[in-house]
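Run log, item B.
One chain of 289 residues. Sequence copied directly from the ordering sheet:
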Amino acid sequence: MPIDRLSFEIARQVYWNLYSEFIKWGASTEVWLGIPLVFVVEGILPAQRYQANIGVLQDVIYLVVSKLSRAVLLALYMVFLKNVFDALLGWTTVDLALKWGPYKAAFLAWLIADFLGWLQHIVRHKVPVFWAFHTVHHSQTRLNTFTRERGHPLDLLTAYTIKFIPFLWLQLSLDLSIVYIGFSAFLDTANHSNIRTNCGFLRYIFVTPQSHRIHHSYRPQHIDKNFGVTLCIWDRLFGTHYENADEYPETGIVEADFPIEKVGRTRLSDLTRQLAYPFRLAADTLRPR
């Protein structure tokens, strides 16, 4: 691709992502209905009563960091990845929407997106270097409505690399699954919140606030369990599901030196130290023993 065309594509992608992440997010049903609903349910059915609001404002700051990362860093990276894929493997693509029709293709997109979400989540836990950056997301000791957005920008790139390439190969677009995306965003917000419910019989199909709290637990019996994003069927199929649906443990990470923010304090220095921490942890994992 010529440099001028590539530059235009990058600029267009960054602009569109900025629009998508901030303007559309601010006008979305998740924000105007989903988040207030989660707030209400947290008050009625708290998983942990009287928990200190440690890091809630910090998570709101991470929301801005997350949106900027998706809008700029991820836009640049996706354009780069797509051009590399087109140059090396473009001839292998299959237009599934054309072959199956948009509705069947959208359903398959949903299943593929959810399975790849489960798979990339395992990779980010099992590979020490990737886990170093994923610690930021797991560092919150008091799950709340905005914990979903707490994460390191490089952790985001790892997740999207694994999820994006199969979509390029199948010529699928997540735009085919608008309903799924909205539902997934709301469910992910609820599942990262301080809510005491396992959703009854629905827990056999979907990830719940209880099952995802287990995933965020640092207790030995809960480590590397419940990796599902929206559906829990992958955990059940591959043996990573934690069966007890009535436990509501404390959350956090075993890395005691992580610079977690203190009660009632939110400082820019906390954010910079948290974003810098994974580089030191990753370097330690790569150092010869």
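Observations after the first pass:
- The chain has one domain: 3-286.
- The two ends are 44 Å apart (CA to CA).
Flagged for discussion on Thursday.
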